[in-house]
Amino acid sequence: MLRLFLPGEYVKSIFHISPKKLKEQGIKGIITDLDNTLVEWDRPNATPQLIEWFKEVKENGMDITIVSNNNEKRVKDFSDPLDIKFIYKARKPMGKAFLKAIKGMNLKKEEVVVIGDQLLTDVLGGNRNGFQTILVVPVASTDGFFTRINRKIERRIMQSLKRKGMIQWEE
Ligand SMILES: [Mg+2]
After folding, report:
1. How far is the CA of 166 from the centre of ligand 1 (A)?
2. What domains appear along the chain, each with residue ranges and CATH number?
3. Which CDD domains match (predicted)?
4. Separation between Cα atoms, residue 140 and residue 109, nearest integer Å
5. What is the 20 CA–ligand 1 centroid distance (Å)?
6. Which residues contact 81 (CB under 8 A, 6 or more apart)?
7. Is cis: bond before 93, omega within 30 of 0?
8. pLDDT per residue over 48-95, tens digit each?
9. Alpha helical stretches, state H, 60-144
10. Does the global pTM surpass 0.90?
11. Nearest-CA neighbor of 113 among 62, 154, 76, 168?
């Protein structure tokens, strides 16, 4: 059970994920969370650095879909100017939105990595639906209301993973 919360990788930020390396690993598509993964949950648009990262993703021939549990306005207003596919109200960790996303990119789940900042939605959802997963440290140290509740549970899971020696990364 605990294993389902274990990310394949844990990195400090999205910018520590190399699109070139993913491509070398056979990855052809990225499913990424939005809030506190790509930008702070209360920042409406992409930063110049993030726009560069998306460019790198595309230059490496990879497709990308933003899959967010947030509402249509938030996700559409962020994604549309970038010309990136998106799914809102995704209800992660439920798998339906992930499956819709890979269908939209015309890829198999083995070819897609799920990136996000939450164990309870992104990592659990990715793992139990058969995707590779990468956990990132949240961009902001604050969260929206529901996420704050999830974080409490998340801290306990993290402690268990550490106690069992399942994770070794530095804080
Ligand atoms: Mg998030």
Report:
1. 23
2. 2-163 (3.40.50.1000)
3. HAD_BsYqeG-like
4. 29
5. 24
6. 45, 46
7. yes
8. 999 999 999 999 999 999 999 999 999 999 999 999 999 999 999 999
9. 72-79, 96-105, 124-128
10. yes
11. 62
